[in-house]
Design brief:
intramolecular phosphotransferase activity, 9 strands, alpha/beta, Alpha-D-phosphohexomutase alpha/beta/alpha domain-containing protein, 31% helix, Alpha-D-Glucose-1,6-Bisphosphate, Chain A, domain 3, phosphoprotein, A-D-PHexomutase_a/b/a-I, six-stranded mixed sheet, three-stranded parallel sheet, metal-binding
Length: 238
Amino acid sequence: MSLPRHIFRAYDIRGIYGKDLTPEVFLRVGAALAKWSDRFCVCSDTRLSSPPLRLALSAGLLGAGASVMDAGEGPIGLAIYLSKHLKYSAGYITASHLPYEWNGLKLYYPGGEPISLDKLNELWRQASGELSWGLSREVRYERVSYLESYAEFLRGLPKESGELRVVVDCGNGATSLIVPKLLRELGYQVVAVNCDVDPMFSVRGSEPTPEATSLPRGPRSEARRRPRSGLRRGWRRG
């Protein structure tokens, strides 16, 4: 089965779910990846299509002989953090700033380095060819949340001293799961905009452009009432 060549891009895999990007594609990709590494961490953003793709990727990895740690939903930094600290290969399911009907896969070597274009080309060839569904070792599937561990790591990073007002626009994506709560715990005054998870991304455009992230009247008034100007941050979806 030849997988669509165009979805294997320079830095990741991306396509429209149900059209050129399907669970079957991720099943085959997972089986091919199992020949590269015997243990993988997988996690995803909050798109509607992310859970079936995460499970399909995990099934391919397991069926071809790799153990899987499924970290569920979280921001892309969670995948990189786990890859660096646990020395796992990692796959993060997201289409970044693209609309909700898109999805994709970013891949990392153990240690958090993204895979190269040459490796993505090799992955396409292997996933399109004859796959080996065999187990030469015991494999495990674990479903573990590392969001709090990731938050604890972020709390330990250097931060600005003094009281600071922060306006955050999470774009209703995966950063909504951690960023506003974390910043409040760090002592910042937080004005949260679009920080409820919405798998359809129905509130604003998918890219954090100045037009898409302009403050609605309520949060704008709240920000102006706060005593000190500070940081404004808008995120893409992952």
